[in-house]
Amino acid sequence: MKISALGYSVKQSVKNMVKNRLLTVASISTIAACLFILGLFYTILTNFQYMVNHLEIGVTVFFRENITEEEIDFIESEIRLRPELKSIKYVSPDEAWEMFKEKLGDFPEVLLGFDDDNPLAHSASFEIYLDDVEKHNEFVRYVESIPGVRLVRRSDDVAEIIKGFNVLIAYVSIGIIIILLLVSVFLISNTVRIGVSMRKDEIKIMKLIGATDGFIRRPFIFEGIIIGLVGGAIPLGLIYLLYNNVIRYIEERFNILRDLLQFLEPSEIFNILVPVLLGIGIVIGIVGSRITLKKHLRV
């Protein structure tokens, strides 16, 4: 396409948009509304999955008898290299015994006879918390393979429940996103179709005087692209402002929930959301224009 032809097509598309500004506003509003709902749902979904995946999962590591402090230090240094590790705490046999006695505080008779004897003398351990439930089984297998480890007490039931719940969320979210996309395509295509139908007489005249299909089609295609870009940019701006303000409000008002409610950084969401929403807007604008023009180009 020559630069002059490209400039003409863009100029005509802008003129058409200004001339039919009410319809243009309606088209942009329809795209913006549909993509705002889609983008908002995606933002909520990704944060929810992030929170579920990063729930703390506890693992307790016990050592073999007669293990040396050097060997314990080596095991700790190896575990600290794991990326899914959130925290690790060494619990000595004396600390384990004190914690056990606290749990049995209401039944002191059970502790009779253990005043000078620690039955948990060989129960030194690491209390470990992970922040990635998907890596739970892999982490346990790794720790079990370390020399000097006697037993790994794992949270299989909790991990499986969380992973199952996460899979369920993924399937439900995919279904909802598909439904939203279909509704968006239907509404936006109808809006574009109405706009093109209103200009069918103009298209017929241009066709009768010898204009090629490509020449007639280009301004409408560029119009669809512009409407799609604007309709995608508006919800992106609104979601960005809303997301930042909601995070700031929760952190300021509900400080106690800060460790539980871990939000994704805006960049992690918008690196995907920006090209997706803009791309959907452009594609729907182009497809809607081409489908409707195909009918009216038959003269």
Automatic annotation (TrEMBL):
GO terms for biological process: cell division. The chain crosses the membrane at residues 21-45, 168-189, 220-243, 269-293. It is found in: Cell membrane. Its main location: membrane. Residues 175-289 form the ABC3 transporter permease C-terminal domain. GO terms for cellular component: plasma membrane. Signal peptide: none annotated. Residues 59-152 form the FtsX extracellular domain. Keywords: Cell cycle, Cell division, Cell membrane, Membrane, Transmembrane, Transmembrane helix. The keyword Transmembrane applies. It comes from the Bacteria. InterPro entries: ABC3_permease_C, FtsX, FtsX_ECD, FtsX_firmicutes-type. It is a multi-pass membrane protein. The keyword Cell membrane applies. PANTHER family: CELL DIVISION PROTEIN FTSX (PTHR47755:SF1). Belongs to the ABC-4 integral membrane protein family. FtsX subfamily. Part of the ABC transporter FtsEX involved in asymmetric cellular division facilitating the initiation of sporulation. NCBIfam families: FtsX_Gpos. This is Cell division protein FtsX. The lineage of its organism: Bacteria, Bacillati, Bacillota, Clostridia, Lachnospirales.
